[in-house]
Amino acid sequence: MPHSHEQSLKERLGEDNFKKIQGIGNPSLNEFLVKFIEILNPEKVFVCTDESADIQYIREKALRDGEEQELAIPGQTVHYDNYFDQARDKKNTAILLPKGKRLDRVITTLDRETGLNDIFQILPNIMKGKELLIRFFCLGPTNSHFSIPAVQLTDSAYVAHSEDLLYRKGYQEFIRQGSGARFFKFIHSQGELDERKSCKNLDQRRVYIDLEEDTVYCTNTQYGGNTIGLKKLAMRLAINRGSQEGWLTEHMLVMGIRGPQNRLTYFTGAFPSLCGKTSTAMLEGENIVGDDIAYLRKVKDEVRAVNVERGIFGIIMGINSKDDPIQWNALHSPNELIYSNILVTPDKQAFWMGKDGEIPSKGYNHSGEWYPGKTDSTGKEIPPSHPNGRFTISLEAMRNLDPAVNDPHGVKIGGIVYGGRDADTSIPVEEAFNWSHGIIIKGAALESETTAATLGKAGVREFNPMSNLDFLSIPVGKYVLNNLDFGRNLPAAPKIFSVNYFLLDHHGKFLNEKNDKKIWYKWMELRVNREVDAIQTPTGRIPLYEDLKPLFKSILNKTFTEQNYLQMFTIRVQENLSKIERISEIYRNLLDVPSDVFHELDAQRTRLQSALKRFGKYISPFTLRGNRI
Ligand code: SPV
Ligand code: MN
To answer: How far is the CA of 362 from the centre of ligand 2 (A)?
Structure first.
């Protein structure tokens, strides 16, 4: 390395840490480190390699600094974010846009120069008196054409510890990829903390994504979705990179569904946050590969997918022994895990909303000392745990982990599923007519109600193409085109489906129980393998009653009546037509929208309009029985 860099790094890092960086031998990494160590100006620097002693140092630091506290079960800790910093902050998260480039208005952007000026006002000396942690990870399996090395700079041992549970080690991967490696860079500082280890300067909360430099800056925030660089921040960089290189980054689970004779068919599934993605990936008896982010590549006419991560940052609310046996078991065994924003009782037991058992009469949570009926400064009652409270744990703790989770070639995908939180329009499961219908009508036209995973009001129906809108760093139209192109010429593209776990009846009651979803996946597995017929409707292909009934009986031991089927699978024509109007209007105002989008939307409208004339506003699935294919 140039003499000046070497001198500077040696001085700042000390001999041991310097050797670790030298061992990687990547000049652009050195340049990056020299620049930012100077700006952040920490008192100390610690470089973490893949060695267990280094990782242990980070774990212990999180406890020493008070960012985590130990719980009664060995290996478990709890962490708290600032009371007003409990979810992704969409308002202060922006893609930095170079002059002359454009992105849609539905994506938050900031002129690049303005954003850099702003962040470079906040960064200088932000780590004064603190220790900077430098960690190396690999997005996707190591030793793979999917692998993307990434370096994280942070002053939060909680962030560095979480990443250890969530991502594959990357120090060796940096070495493997050599001096030309294209890597992602993340700079995080939680800024000044108060006595509760809570961020003091939320007014300076920023998450800025610089695509030009593959760098994300993030300050004065603690919530994992804002701070864990390799999670949603890397996703924006990867969407941009995949768009240039012809592969996809999706907000998707990856899982294997078991069919007859133990056959395993792999699916990906895109769902917005807090809409059942993790609970789907955790279905008992099926195999989990990943629960949140996937990279998809075409290899020899197959679609192959990997889990970008190796752990889960799961929603804790609602997890109970009956509905979630796999997660429940992992939470009650001595596994290394970090809870966030839950209630801890005086005897160090973890409690959250929806857990088995009584609500404790006192404890400590994200609001400080807690008791039932406590209200916050706005007069709102504080629940025992935050609805976006989480637990971070390695997938190794899950007994349903698929053996192919680290396969450098990924798994072959047979089906792709899109689902949202939709009270009144989409039926519980439906197959698309073909790739283009699936990508556009099931994926690109997805709508979902907002949830506690982002700051702001919950329950508002929003456009959320492929459940990925929050993470897009390219125009929506271009993103849809990339998806269309991806499967267009494949001789056997994966089948595409929609699911809806949140459909209500006319009295506002959920039509499905939490585990009914298992049946939809079993049916999709049979469809992918061409073992059952379907009924053609104006919106897609739906299951036959005769196929669902025995699945409900044999798998859930439930009697699935004709009345159940009728209620769940009635095509809601008027609601579907209204949706087409809403979505068409949105796409008319977006950039670079491929004409296929309008063709598919128009064709769906035409089918629905003629069905409206023929059958009326609601079409019973029994009426369409003759359209069997
Ligand atoms: C999500 O909100 O989609 C999550 C958690 O998976 S976060 O890291 O906040 O994005
Ligand atoms: Mn997610």
So the answer is: 31
> Which pLDDT band holds residue 5 (cuts at 50, 70, 90)?
confident
**Mean pLDDT along residues 264-270:** 98
232 lines ligand 1 (CB under 6 A): yes
Fold of 313-397: Phosphoenolpyruvate Carboxykinase; domain 2 (2.170.8)
Give the H or E element holding residue 528. Answer: helix 517-528
Residue 403 confidence (pLDDT) above 80: yes
Out of 3.20.20.150, 3.40.630.10, 3.40.449.10, 3.30.1330.10, which CATH number does the structure's domain 3-66+90-245 have? 3.40.449.10
Please, where are the H alpha helices in 82-215? Answer: 112-122, 157-166, 171-177
Q: Answer yes or no: is the C-beta of 231 below 6 A from any ligand 1 atom.
A: yes
The verdict on pTM exceeding 0.90 is yes
Residues with CB in 5 Å of ion ligand 2: 273, 292
Residues of the chain with CATH 2.170.8.10: 313-397
CA distance 145 to 520: 33
pLDDT band at 200 (very low <50, low <70, confident <90, very high): very high
CA of 273 to the centre of ligand 2 (A): 5
pLDDT, residue 459, reads: 85
CA of 276 to the centre of ligand 2 (A): 10
Nearest to residue 205, comparing CAs of 130, 126, 104, 106? 126
Residues of the chain with CATH 3.40.449.10: 3-66+90-245
Closest residue (by CA) to atom 10 of ligand 1?
225
Q: Is residue 424 within 8 Å of residue 503, measured between CB atoms?
A: yes
Nearest CA to ligand 1 atom 4: 273
CA distance 365 to 161: 20
Task: Verify whether ligand 1 is closer than 6 Å to residue 197 (CB atom).
Answer: no
For 351, the token pair is 């409690």
The whole-number pLDDT of residue 470 equals 96
Average pLDDT over residues 301-313: 98
Q: Which CATH number fits domain 248-310+403-627: 3.40.50.620, 3.20.20.70, 3.40.30.10, 3.90.228.20?
A: 3.90.228.20
Residue 48 appears among annotated catalytic residues: no
